[in-house]
């Protein structure tokens, strides 16, 4: 069955007039921010605030990272309509039989428990955040070399972005850690919240059939429990940030064996967890 999906991306920035410190009127670009209400089999789940650059991937990735769906074949269609500021996701079962996702016994009570996270604004995680973590086993086949880390940091710094034009966004990148293109950016998503950006990356990975075991996930945002759990659920063994971390993020990363690095700017980084998957190369360091 072919996934039926809109291509409803909208402009990430708009132009407005502002007054600078010299009293001059100037044209500036500011980041977009649009409400997008998510419906699954006609049931309203929540409203996401988004740039609108990857609305379909965002909706799919959100469902994946909330553990509502386990395989993309469960989805028949993803339809974004900006006139109603909504995205309607229809399951294959509902399309074929008329039986809603919410009528199945295993889905009863999924929305009863939710956690408000430290996501920009207010992120929400439904169900038990720690559920199923014991079943996650991350691969150790592809260690991260220090030189590849520096390559990723440099490529992300140079990448064209909404942040450079308008600010007020977080960015996430999925990077290669195998073959001849180690350190290359495979996917890059920005949004008004870092949790949106990671969800959109997850959605794009599913849409494009991208595997996770030889990838590095980069985020401009802080390494919270939510970010670590989502990265682990996506099967990505290495998590890198230019920002810092929280205690719960650290504890979960250590428990799961994620290789997690933060404060990554210039030639500086801090390796917090997963040391066995990281290969330090003194000749590439700041004192080389």
From TrEMBL:
Keywords: Cytoplasm, Molybdenum cofactor biosynthesis. It comes from Limnobacter litoralis. Its main location: cytoplasm. Required for formate dehydrogenase (FDH) activity. Acts as a sulfur carrier protein that transfers sulfur from IscS to the molybdenum cofactor prior to its insertion into FDH. The keyword tRNA processing does not apply. Belongs to the FdhD family. The lineage of its organism: Bacteria, Pseudomonadati, Pseudomonadota, Betaproteobacteria, Burkholderiales. It comes from the Bacteria. The keyword Cytoplasm applies. It holds the Pfam family FdhD-NarQ. InterPro entries: Cytidine_deaminase-like, FdhD. The active site is at residue 120. It is found in: Cytoplasm. This is Sulfur carrier protein FdhD. The gene is fdhD_1.
